[in-house]
Specification:
The chain has 261 residues and is mostly helical. It is 86% helix and 0% strand. It is built from nine helices and no strands. Helix 1 crosses helix 6, helix 6 packs across helix 8 and helix 8 packs antiparallel against helix 9. The chain is globular and about 65 Å long. The model has no long low-confidence stretch (mean pLDDT 90).
C-alpha cells in the first residue's frame, strides 16, 4: 500500500512546495514594489543599477540581436524559396525581431548576466552580514537594495529591447543585401511599410515585464541565499534558471493577451 501511495506523496509534496514558493515570491514582489513608491529614495543606487543593467548589457544584447537577425534572414529565405516567397524576408525578419526574438533574447541575455550578478552581490552581502549592518543603521534592505534594481531593470530592458530590435533588423538587412541579393532601398521600404506601431510597442511592454522578472529573481534569491560560498552559488544558479523560465512563460502569456484572435 505504501509503495502505491509513494508517487502521490511525492506529487503532493512537490505541489505544496511549488505553491509555497509562489506565495513567498508574490509577497516579496508586493513588498518590493511598495518600496519603489515610498520614500526615502536612493538615486545613487538607482543610477548605478541603471548603468549595470542597461549600459553594460548593451554589447551582449546587440551582438545576440545582430547574429539572430542575420540567421533569421537566411532561414526565412530558405523556407520561402519552397513557396516562391523569398520577398517576405524583410517583413518576417522585422516582425519576428520586434515581437518575439528581440524581447525574448534580450530578456534571456540580461537574465544570464544581471540576475546572476544581483543574486551573487546580495547573497554575498547577506553571508558577510552587511545586510544585517544595514538594518542596524536603520536602512531598510528592501528599499536600499531591491527597489532601485527593480526600477532600473524595468526601465532599462525596454530600451535594450528597442536597440536590439534595430540591430537585429540591421543584421537581417546586411545578410539580405550582401548575401541574398536584395535591393537595399527596397528591403528598408518593405520593413518600414510592414511594421505597425503595436508590433514595436508590444515588444517594449514585454521588455519591461522581463526586466522586472530579472531583477525580482536576482533580488529574491540573493536575499534568501544560504550561508557560505555554496549558498551564494546556489542562489546565483536559481536566479538565472527561475528568471529564464519565468521570462519564457510570461512571453507566452503576453503574446496570448496581445495577439490572440
Amino acid at each position: 500500500m505504501a509503495a502505491v501511495l509513494t508517487p502521490f506523496t511525492v506529487i503532493g509534496r512537490t505541489t505544496l512546495a511549488l505553491l509555497a514558493a509562489i506565495g513567498r515570491i508574490t509577497l516579496f514582489a508586493l513588498s518590493a514594489v511598495s518600496h519603489v513608491f515610498r520614500p526615502p529614495f536612493y538615486p545613487r543606487e538607482f543610477l548605478a543599477a541603471l548603468m549595470t543593467i542597461g549600459w553594460y548589457s548593451l554589447p551582449v544584447v546587440g551582438l545576440t540581436a545582430f547574429f539572430t537577425g542575420g540567421a533569421l534572414a537566411l532561414q526565412i529565405y530558405a523556407g520561402g524559396a519552397r513557396f516562391n516567397a523569398e520577398a517576405v524576408v524583410p517583413s518576417i525578419v522585422a516582425i519576428g525581431m520586434v515581437r518575439e526574438l528581440g524581447p525574448v533574447l534580450g530578456g534571456l541575455m540580461v537574465a544570464a548576466r544581471v540576475a546572476s550578478s544581483i543574486a551573487a552581490e546580495i547573497g554575498t552581502m547577506k553571508v558577510t552580514e552587511q545586510i544585517d549592518a544595514l538594518t542596524t543603521l536603520s536602512t531598510n534592505p528592501m528599499k536600499y537594495l531591491t527597489a532601485p534594481r527593480l526600477l532600473a531593470a524595468t526601465l532599462a530592458v525596454p530600451v535594450l529591447v528597442a536597440v536590439g530590435d534595430a540591430i537585429g533588423i540591421l543584421g537581417g538587412y546586411v545578410v539580405g543585401v550582401q548575401r541574398l541579393g536584395f535591393n537595399g532601398a527596397a528591403y528598408l521600404q518593405n520593413t518600414v511599410n510592414f511594421l505597425e506601431p503595436w508590433d514595436v510597442g508590444s515588444g517594449l511592454v514585454k521588455g519591461a515585464a522581463f526586466g522586472f522578472i530579472v531583477a525580482l529573481m536576482g533580488c529574491y534569491h540573493g536575499m534568501n541565499s544560504g550561508r557560505g560560498a555554496q549558498g551564494v552559488g546556489q542562489a546565483t544558479k536559481s536566479a538565472v534558471v527561475s528568471a529564464s523560465v519565468l521570462i519564457l512563460a510570461a512571453n507566452y502569456l503576453l503574446t496570448e493577451a496581445f495577439f490572440s484572435a
